[in-house]
Design brief:
- By secondary structure, the chain is an alpha/beta fold.
- The protein has one domain: 2-enoyl-CoA Hydratase, Chain A, domain 1 (Alpha-Beta Complex).
- Helices cover 48% and strands 18% of the residues.
- It is built from ten helices and eleven strands.
- The chain has a seven-stranded mixed β-sheet with strand order 1-2-3-4-6-8-11, sandwiched between helices. The chain has a four-stranded mixed β-sheet with strand order 5-7-9-10.
- α2 crosses α10 (241-251).
- The longest helix is centred in the middle third of the chain and has 19 residues, at 147-165.
- The radius of gyration is 17 Å and the shape is globular.
- Mean pLDDT is 95; it is low at 1-6.
- It binds coenzyme A (COA).
- Coenzyme A is lined by residues 29-30, 32, 68-73, 109, 111-112, 135-136, 139, 141.
Length: 255
């Protein structure tokens, strides 16, 4: 694999032939996403789009933790400064508008945006012990990343409501049952299985894959508009007393 450096070091990009692996690399915080990490993710996706040599992208995390969601400390900071999270929104746009097939390797927990970004992926491999949770309302927030559109579309309203509004977690098996995960494998096999799927996709005629994918995904503008609608409401919710209390409780919890 050839390696490219990244300004934050908390997102690592490496190519394996025609497959680009974008790895969240903040394991000490369970890969909670900061604004610099969103910037690096956006850049990595844009670069993959622009490279004719890259035919598929794998999103990966750390063993046991794919992504614990947005950094709650940053949530609190942005709540205090007006709720703006420009790098998050740029990343969500890049994710929705990404042209290359996206495979995810979920080695463990996937929380908040760690789960909702998977709704933009084309193939998801999860470890047997992985869990998928979106505790948005418990944090005084609401679903984002167009999950209010893609969630019901992918799994039906009943299951989407339990996940996205009630905040009930899904096991890997339940996520597969719900249609947001393709393969559930032993933790040690997650990355190899995801890479194999990515190479399988990369070996297909790229033009035919791109057009087929675009047809399956449907109207892009609708997804981008939903990201923006959610983001406006999310910004207000970030500044609510409910949200501030939840963030402070998380940040001051004793373990
Ligand atoms: N934002 C900021 N820090 C986070 C974080 C997040 N979303 N998720 C985890 N961390 C930090 C923890 O505060 C802890 O930091 P510390 O070691 O300095 O205390 C470190 O990452 C490890 O997390 P810890 O809680 O000790 O691991 P765990 O295995 O017991 O629990 C989680 C993992 C993900 C269940 C738990 O950390 C959690 O609930 N995180 C918040 C998830 C969340 O609500 N995300 C936002 C969704 S919108």
């Amino acid at each position: 694999m050839s390696h490219q450096s990244d300004p934050t070091d908390q997102v690592a990009v490496a190519d394996d032939g025609s497959v680009r692996v974008i790895r969240l690399n903040r394991p000490e915080k369970k890969n909670a996403l900061t604004q610099p990490m969103y910037t690096a993710l956006t850049r990595a996706l844009h670069e993959a789009n622009e490279s004719a040599a890259i035919r598929c992208v794998v999103l990966a995390g750390a063993p046991g933790a794919f992504c614990a969601g947005a950094d709650i400390g940053e949530f609190l900071e942005s709540a205090q400064s007006g709720g703006l999270r420009p790098k998050t929104i740029e990343f969500l746009h890049a994710l929705a508008q990404n042209q290359k097939p996206l495979v995810a390797a979920v080695g463990g927990l996937a929380v908040g945006i760690g789960t909702t970004m998977l709704l933009h992926c084309d193939y998801v491999v999860a470890a047997t012990g992985a869990t998928f949770a979106t505790p948005f309302t418990r944090l005084g927030l609401l679903p984002e990343a167009a999950s209010s559109l893609l969630g019901p579309r992918r799994m039906g309203h009943a299951r989407a409501f339990a996940l996205l509004v009630m905040g009930r977690p899904l096991t890997a098996a339940a996520a597969k049952e719900a249609g947001i995960v393709n393969d559930v494998v032993d933790a040690a096999l997650v990355e190899a299985t995801a890479l194999a799927a990515a190479h399988e996709i990369a070996a297909l005629p790229a033009g035919a894959v791109a057009q087929s994918r675009a047809l399956l995904r449907g109207e892009l503008d609708e997804v981008v508009r939903r990201i923006d609608t959610e983001a406006m409401a999310f910004r207000e919710r970030l500044q609510s007393d409910e949200a501030r209390a939840a963030f402070t409780a998380f940040l001051s919890r004793r373990k």
